């Protein structure tokens, strides 16, 4: 599930890219996209020729994670699981350390949910 970085989003996800660049050189390391950069499937539905004009509504929801919870989530991502053990441990330990050093010792991740409806042709 992709998360986004709205205007009032948690800056942690921009700051943590420093860790990714240091420990994963040569890999793309971009913060989450802005909310408006994530497209729904409405245009794809319409251009398929099977549906009429699509209407979309976007809803944002937040999940707050402690350091332990966030590292546990990262351990479910295939990109992290595919890394060699030493790199993964270093990366996750540094992410954990940074979260623990924050006021509130947590991160807030924003997820988009998009409702798309269109008449079937």
What does this 3D model show about the protein?
- This protein has 121 residues and is of the alpha+beta class.
- The chain has a domain at 64-110.
- 37% of the residues lie in helices and 20% in strands.
- The protein has six helices and two strands.
- The protein has helices at residues 12-15, 17-23, 42-47, 67-74, 78-81, 85-100, and strands spanning 55-66, 106-117.
- Strands 1-2 form a two-stranded antiparallel ribbon.
- Helix 4 (67-74) packs antiparallel against helix 6.
- The longest helix is centred in the C-terminal third of the chain and has 16 residues, at 85-100.
Overall pLDDT: 91
Beta fraction: 15-25%
Order of helices and strands: HHHEHHHE
- The first-to-last residue Cα distance is 30 Å
Structural class: alpha+beta
Blueprint (SSEs and pairs):
Elements: H1 12-15, H2 17-23, H3 42-47, E1 55-66, H4 67-74, H5 78-81, H6 85-100, E2 106-117
Antiparallel strand pairs: 1-2
Helix pairs in contact: 4-6
Structure, briefly:
The protein has 121 residues and is of the alpha+beta class. The protein is built from six helices and two strands; from the N terminus they run αααβαααβ. It is elongated.
Give the tags:
121 residues; alpha+beta; two-stranded antiparallel sheet; 2 strands
């Amino acid at each position: 599930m992709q998360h986004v970085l709205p205007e009032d989003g948690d800056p942690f996800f921009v700051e943590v890219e420093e860790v990714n660049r240091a420990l994963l050189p040569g890999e793309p390391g971009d913060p989450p996209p802005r909310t408006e950069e994530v497209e729904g499937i409405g245009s794809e539905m319409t251009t398929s020729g099977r549906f009429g004009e699509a209407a979309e509504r976007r809803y944002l929801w937040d999940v707050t994670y402690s350091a332990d919870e966030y590292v546990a989530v990262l351990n479910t991502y295939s990109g992290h699981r595919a890394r060699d053990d030493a790199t993964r441990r270093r990366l996750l330990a540094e992410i954990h350390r940074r979260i623990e050093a924050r006021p509130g010792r947590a991160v807030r991740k924003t997820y988009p949910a998009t409702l798309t409806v269109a008449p079937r042709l």
